[in-house]
Amino acid sequence: MTEPLSGRHNPPKTLEEHREYLFEIVRLMLFYMHLQLNEHPEENFVFVLRNRVDIYRKTDANPGPLNPPDLHFDEEPWLCMERAAEQCWQAHRTDRAGFEAEAFEIFRPSIERRVERDFHDGSVLKRYQCGCFRHDLALKKIEGECLGFHIANDKAPDSLFDYPSHIRDCLLKLCDVAEQQFGAKHLCTSTWLNCYPRFLALFPDEWQQNLGKENHEVGWGYGHWGQFISARGTYNKRNGDYFRKNGRMPYYPRFSKCRIDVLRAFLK
Fold first, then answer.
1. Which residues are paired to 259 by β-bridges?
2. Residue 245 domain-assigned?
3. How sure is the predictor about 1, in pLDDT bands with cuts at 50, 70 and 90?
4. Which of 13, 72, 235, 247 is most buried as measured by Cβ atoms within 10 A of its Cβ?
């Protein structure tokens, strides 16, 4: 087994640590919801709950895997919690801490019932065709034929960035797939990692030259919320504390792309 750059392996996450992660990240999402609804009164509670945070997937109202193909938003197991949480919001419009605490207790039993199933769910990485990278199934027509991709830590509980050779091999495989199966000329992604120096170091200068603006249109996915998950899959308290203190996330997704031939030459 390849040794990490740090020289040591992290201990695997425990079931109790996973429970704590779920509880803490849901609390953080509720904190964000209160902030968002006060700053953007044009958005309604249900829209923010369903589209800007990822609480539903962490409850047993979600009968499927971690990232399910179907959303059961219109069924009673979810609707009863959603209605109660909205009533809580109406009662605590000016009390962020009160809303977070009371709304969390609405979701807590449902999250608790799913903890063990969530802990053992390995379905996400099974969708990654190129190790730590998953490519889209169609090209994006953005100033050339771009194949979009996504990133996951397939070296957990260690940091993915402790395995640069593995990342390089996965990127080269992604380049092959992009060219051979899709006829792509570019690779592209939008992620908070495009603000992270260790990620940017994996790509040629062209990648940094093509970086777009920060995307503050928060969605439910890992493009925004992944920064609050540690390499071990636990809650990233440092980033969570920064968000609570400053009212803004430490990082926001940025889009970038580069030519596949330029990336391949850089990697080799």
1. 186
2. no
3. low
4. 235
